[in-house]
Amino acid sequence: MVHHYHAQIYVTLRPSVLDPAGTAVQSGLSHLGYDTVEQVRIGKYIELTLRAENETAAHEQVDRMCDQLLANPVVENYRFDLKEIALSVGVTP
Amino acid sequence: MKFGIIVFPGSNCDRDVLWVTEGLLNQPTRMVWHEDSQLSDLDVIVIPGGFSYGDYLRCGAIARFSPALQATIQHAEQGKPVLGICNGFQVLTEAGLLPGALVRNRDLHFICDRVPLRVERTNLLWTQAYQPGEIITLPIAHGEGCYYADPETLAALEAKGQVVFRYSETSNGQGVAENPNGSLNHIAGICNSRGNVLGMMPHPERAADAMLGSTDGLRLFAGILAQVAAIA
């Protein structure tokens, strides 16, 4: 039986890569008075829904997608959460 | 010698390259639409600057899946010359033909300028018309041109002499070394270990016609012309 899953994917810059945009946002927060902020790192959030036989298969698919396209492993790390969903929720049959 | 210029939706320096190879150097040149996978008639492939596929997700990330780029990878694996300029350099790193990645400029700005570069290697197909250590000036125009690689990769690039162009101080030796975008080791252009694939952020095609003020970039194209003609 085919199941449907919702993946929430977080792509972040590897710690060794400078994030000038994060630094600029930190400066903005500081100007607003939030001088308690010690570091800002900006990443990407990607949502997708997919079909798979089971959760293990879905996990493998999303992992490969991240590795091959959604993240660039040279400069980015990724992690994701996977949740089974009913077909009717936000999925085109 | 036949040149091919890959045209993606969003490429915008393709016709500038055409002007150099066909207009200035009188070489047959074919514009290759990104859906075309028949590139076997080409001697040299150029991936031009621009914003391929809108630079969605990451610069160059989507372009690498196109049929034309898959065929370019085969072309490169046969040892034939490939040049990636600006967005083309980003595409080559995303495709794995060159190591490392190009990330957001250190100061966040899109930089449009002319910068001095030191030619680090002149025994390549591409750079044999330059003098070792020569300082040339080429235009840059990019927002994501900061070269990054992990320390091991960077050390290997340096050890194997794969850094071809480096942001430099000006030719008269005045002033400190310039690094416009924060690139590690001031890297502006690198080649693969075999030397046939070159990626660079500066635009040699925009410094090729004397009418536009500089011909420092023309020698890159003229050099490979002489070199490949000599082999053939």
Describe the structure.
- The complex is a heterodimer of chains A (93) and B (232).
- Chain A is an alpha+beta fold.
- Chain A is 30% helix and 32% strand.
- Chain A has a single domain, classed as 2-Layer Sandwich (Mth169, Chain: A), CATH 3.30.1280.10.
- A three-stranded antiparallel β-sheet of chain A has the order 2-1-3, with helices on one face.
- Chain A starts with a strand and ends in an 8-residue tail after the last strand.
- Chain B is of the alpha/beta class and 232 residues long.
- Chain B has a single domain, classed as Class I glutamine amidotransferase (GATase) domain (Rossmann fold, 3-Layer(aba) Sandwich), CATH 3.40.50.880.
- Chain B has a nine-stranded mixed β-sheet with strand order 2-1-3-4-11-10-9-6-7, with helices on both faces. In chain B, strands 5-8 form a two-stranded antiparallel sheet.
- At the A-B interface, helix 1 of A face loops of B.
Brief description of this entry?
Chain A is α+β, with helices and mostly antiparallel strands. Chain A has helices at residues 20-31, 55-70, and strands spanning 3-13, 44-52, 76-85. Chain A has a 3-stranded antiparallel sheet, covered by helices on one side.
